[in-house]
Structure formats: C-alpha cells, structure tokens
Write a structure and sequence with these properties.
alpha/beta, 8-stranded mixed sheet
Length: about 160
C-alpha cells in the first residue's frame, strides 16, 4: 500500500501539496517518527473515539496521549475508545491501526489538539505502517480549520 486511496483523492482534490515518506514498518506513530527521522511533535497521531452519537477522530502529536477525561469535557459526550473492528470498518482502505489524521474523507469529525497548530510541517500515517504523509503545517491547518481545536493531550 503506500497512501490510502481516500486520502490521496482528498488531498489531490483539495489541491494540497504533499509528499510521502517511506520508512521501515512500525507499530506506532511515535516509532514511525523515529524510523522516518522526523520530529515526533510534528507527527499527528489519530485515536478513534466512539460516543453515543457516532465517532470522532482525536488527533494529537505522536509524543502525547489523549487525556480521555479532558476530551470528554471538550466534546461533551460520554465516550470511549473505538474497538479495532469499528476502526477497521470506518477506515476500510487502511491497514489495521494505521489511521490517517484526516477524518473528512471518511465522514468522521475531528478534534485537533492545539499542540499541532502552527507547525512548519505535519506528518501522519498514510494508511499503512510504512508510509508517512508530509504536508505544510499551514495546509494541515487549512484542511482542519472547521474542526474543533482544544487542548486535550498530555506528554507520553
């Protein structure tokens, strides 16, 4: 795989310049940052959250964890982590666990941690465990400007 088809189509149609960064297979976004030799604070990690009305994609730097208690206050819903089956169903063109940091192509709303705002560059999983997508921070900010932005992460 390299980049998931929905992500590629979305980025191409939004006229966003991006590049792919191959790296050895990894199991986590933090390890992907290390393997690709990019800053972990600039790698956007996605966590799929299930709540009573559906799903939300919580996006934080790979060096952080989602603070579920704070996120619950931010989205004002009872919530929990989505199951692996739910994630695979939502992101069906991606490898299991390689969720890109863009929910729009999948119809999943997003909440972006403020630590990702104003970065020079953003990297995120491309849909497999061997490819990061790199774009300018301003393009990522543009693509996510209509998403909720809040502080809900803590350092890992």
């Amino acid at each position: 795989m390299t980049i998931a088809s929905r992500i590629k189509d979305y980025l191409d149609s939004s006229e966003t310049f991006y590049e792919t960064v191959p790296h050895p297979r990894t199991a986590t976004s933090a390890r992907s940052a290390e393997a690709a030799h990019v800053p972990g604070d600039g790698v956007a990690k996605s966590v799929v959250i299930h709540h009573e009305e559906g799903y939300v994609l919580a996006v934080v730097p790979s060096t952080c964890r989602v603070d579920l208690r704070t996120l619950q206050e931010v989205i004002d819903r009872r919530m929990g982590l989505a199951s692996e089956t739910e994630v695979e169903s939502l992101f069906d063109d991606c490898d299991s666990g390689a969720v890109p940091a863009l929910g729009a192509p999948y119809g999943v709303p997003m909440v972006i941690d403020r630590r990702l705002e104003g970065q020079d560059a953003i990297w995120f999983e491309g849909g497999d465990h061997k490819t990061l997508v790199k774009m300018s921070g301003s393009d990522f900010d543009r693509l996510t400007r209509n998403c909720k932005h809040a502080s809900f992460s803590r350092r890992a």
